Amino acid sequence: MLKKKTRPAVVFKSKFIVNTDKKFKSYIDYINRDDAIRNGAYQQYSLYNEYMGNPEKTTGIFTNDSNRLTQSEKDLVKEKFSLAQEKKSIMWQEVYSFDNEWLKKQGLYDPKTKFLDEDKIKNAIRKSIEFSLEKSGMKETALWSGAIHYNTDNIHIHVAICEPNPTKKRGKRTQKTLDTMKSKFINHLLDFDEEYKEINKILRENLLKSSKDFDISKDATMKKLMNEVVNNLPPDSRHWHYNYNTMNDAKVPLNKLIKYYIDTYKKDEYMDLINKLDKQEKELEEVYGVGKRKKFKDYKQNKIDELYTRMGNAFLSDLKVQLKQEKRNQFEKQRLSNDNFYKKQNQIYMTKKTLYHIKRSLGDEFDNVKNQSYYQSLQNEIEYNR
Questions:
Q1: Are 366 and 266 contacting, i.e. CB atoms less than 8 angstroms apart?
Q2: Phi first, then psi: what are they for 13, rounded to 5°?
């Protein structure tokens, strides 16, 4: 049975027109008009008539610097857009559209009172447009204006961008840029960064303390797995990185070591992580929808892989330090010949101190990855391995 296609809760679209397009002139004509007049003329200047239709209400114009332009400010913006058209600038039009039920669920909209957290939405738009202009090299040359349009089912924000002194002859953006614009918008709108900081603080205080409450120097299984890793490491310690191809032999026991450590000492925290990842994956599906280009694809597994990579590298890094110290001690005590020294270069005594350092490395990296997995900026999670 085919999985039902989910419509994204947030839709982002982008188009552009050249200066001779009649909608360029129409947009300029209505910049400084009353909100009600602009609302009625929406189809004359919007590139999204087939998609959005006429709004029920349109808010005042906002820009990067102002939440609502005064009449004199609107007149000035109109002059600059007119100059841009005269100088043959491209006009980009973006639309950010919501499922109103999703807005309600996020606490951003009350359908009964018609209250919408416009300030929060406008600030999220600014983050999205800021990225776009920086990416295209137009941060110092572009001008943009936007307005929020109310509909019963789909509130949307319409934004127009131009260059009063044009620097760009091509209007097309890459799909990766468009995806990031949307992710920047959503990240800021949902306060993922702030939530991440708060949860990170809580987990740091709770988990780091718990990682010091046991002594794994008495753990025979841990000792055995550590020695298996050491015995399979490549001779050149510069290759001791989790994802190196030369680590394939050592990676099998290393993964066993990490899994054993998690199952034995971090089981509850790991299950908490999995539950959080499941929840995040569901939220991503709701926001981005499903389809061939679903942004949440493999999200959960990628985070688990990241956990193993970081814990593995933490172990290898600490092991390298401990091994160097052990080599120095052996050299000073025994004055080994070069041949004997080479044969023993991958030997390390699993002392209590060594085990303590390695345990701390594993524990700290587990906590770091677990914290970042909760509400980390989605930008790094939904872009194409950006």
A1: yes
A2: -135, 150
DSSP 5: P
Please tell me the number of Cα atoms within 13 Å of 298 on its side-chain side.
8
Q: Classify strands 109-110 and 143-150 as parallel, antiparallel or unpaired.
A: unpaired
Mark out the alpha helices in the chain (DSSP H runs).
Answer: 22-31, 35-40, 42-45, 49-52, 71-86, 100-105, 118-136, 175-189, 192-210, 220-231, 248-265, 267-288, 299-334, 338-343, 352-375, 379-382
Question: DSSP class of residue 90?
Answer: -
Going by the DSSP 8-state scheme, the letter that residue 62 receives in this structure is B
Which of these, 143, 174, 19, lies nearest to 90 by C-alpha position?
19
Report whether 144 contacts 160 (CB < 8 A): yes
Q: Which amino acid is at 283?
A: E
Domains along the sequence of the chain with CATH:
10-190 (3.30.930), 193-382 (no CATH)
Query: How large is the greatest C-alpha to C-alpha distance in the chain, in angstroms?
Result: 91
> CB 267: neighbour CB atoms within 10 A?
10
Neighbour order of strands in the sheet with 156-162: 10-17, 91-98, 156-162, 143-150, 57-58
Q: What predicted TM-score, i.e. pTM, was given to this entire model?
A: 0.72
Q: How far apart are CA 23 and CA 189, in angstroms?
A: 30
- Taking only the tens of pLDDT, the chain with its 386 residues reads 444 556 789 999 999 999 999 999 999 999 988 888 888 888 889 888 665 666 888 999 999 999 999 999 999 999 999 999 999 999 999 999 999 999 999 999 999 999 999 999 999 999 999 999 999 999 999 999 999 999 878 899 999 999 999 999 999 999 999 999 998 999 889 876 665 454 444 444 543 344 444 455 678 898 888 889 989 999 888 899 999 999 999 999 999 988 998 888 888 888 887 887 788 788 878 888 765 556 666 777 887 888 888 888 888 888 888 777 777 777 666 654 555 555 455 555 555 556 666 666 666 666 666 666 544 544 444 444 44
Q: DSSP labels for 120-140? A: HHHHHHHHHHHHHHHHHT-TT
Which amino acid appears at position 263 of this protein? Answer: D
Q: Rounded CA gap, 108 and 100, in Å?
A: 9
